[in-house]
Amino acid sequence: MKKAIMLLTAVGAATLLSACSAEHGTTMCTTAPQADWQNQETFQAQLVAQGYKINEFKVTDGNCYEIYGFNKDENKVEIYFNPVDGSIVKEESH
Predict the structure, then answer these.
(1) 49 or 20, which is more confident?
(2) Which residues are CB-contacts of 43 (< 8 A; sequence separation ≥ 6)?
(3) DSSP conformation class of 86
(4) Which of 16, 37, 57, 88 has its CA 20 to 30 A from that of 51?
(5) 4 neighbors 67 (Cβ within 8 angstroms)
(6) Is residue 41 within 8 Å of residue 53, measured between CB atoms?
(7) Considering the entire predicted model, what is its pTM?
(8) Sheet strands side by side (includes 88-93)
(9) What is the CA radius of gyration of the chain?
(10) Beta carbons within 8 Å of 70's beta carbon, 6+ residues apart
(11) Which of the pair, 15 or 23, is modelled with greater confidence?
């Protein structure tokens, strides 16, 4: 009985933590140390060379490089990138 209660408590805590993360909208991109991340200026220059127009660039609480701007098709976008490998983790077009 004690084991069942402990298991239910652990599952409930995990569910609560997941809900909090989702509720706050934190997108996680990496747990790698910043020493392993690409240089911010170089990364932005690569995006511009690919046709992106960057209105705002920032580092998020979820360890992402995030841009607000326009893609090469001139669609308004918000994109979260993994700062280590540059892959897109989440993209929203507006």
Answers:
(1) 49
(2) 65, 81, 83, 86
(3) -
(4) 37
(5) no
(6) no
(7) 0.73
(8) 53-59, 65-70, 76-81, 88-93
(9) 18
(10) 52, 53, 55, 76, 77
(11) 23
